[in-house]
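Quick one: examine this chain and its backbone structure tokens and tell me how the chain folds. Here goes:
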Amino acid sequence: MKLWNDGHLGLAITRLGGEYLLAMLALGALAVHTGNNLLYLVFSLMVGLFLVSGWVSRAAIRGLRMVQITEGNLFVRMGGGVRVQFRDRFPGRVRCLQICLICEGGRVEPGYYAGGRALAEGVVVLQAHPERRGWWRVSALELRTSYPFGFLEKSLRLPIDQALMVLPHPRSGPSHAEWKGEAPRTSSRSGAASPDGARPFRIGDPPARIHWKRTAQRGEPWVREFEEEVTVGVQLRLDLQAWRPGIAFEHELERLSGAILHAHLKRREVFLEIFGREGRRAFQGRTSSWRALALAQAEGS
């Protein structure tokens, strides 16, 4: 039950606090009716305990300031971690705070900040579950405490105007050999595809690679060097004008997102090309490619 809420600081009595308050009032009424000094003493101790609970829980909120909120890789339907960093003016004070992030279009599981450490900064990681890709608006951060006895719950709401980036769900799809939006990106290295030059003979080189003309000129064995193309990354392409807004376009973004995750697990570089009305845009790396897919909008009619 809420006792007051002025928009920033709220006070509510818990179920345990309500039961404690009823017992305290009943004991006070019994003390007045009987005139027993022992009952008066117990009633006074219970009142003092109730007031101390409220004072200590209010002190647990003071001196704590939010520094920043940073997201990791937030995916639709998979969620991810959101890091809330605090600065503590009174390091070492026991806090026992419940951290709640208020967002639109999704939910964030509450976290816990214990305090009690001699550190000026603390970090709480909250598990977020957004509902759609793109920018996700964060409206407020709420600190709640019922420490130390759980009779009263105080809450402090900090208004925030920040947006977090939500990435498309990484859906597993067909291999790039069957997928027109993905192709291997190649690079040359020493191998056995085309002659590149010659070098002195080394132990272990096959005799078939001996460069006889160079060997005759130098008077010592020389071998041919060759090149071959090897896969060093994944090339992804997305034509926005070929897709209409809808489920099919979202599935295509999810397949591309899954290809980026697969390339990351294989430790390969990702190259993304997006074609649209603004022309060609190129992105390199998983982070920039994911963010580009998160903001992509179909342009087909």
In short: Residues 94 and 115 are 5 Å apart (CA to CA). The chain is about 25% helix and 45% strand. The radius of gyration is 33 Å.
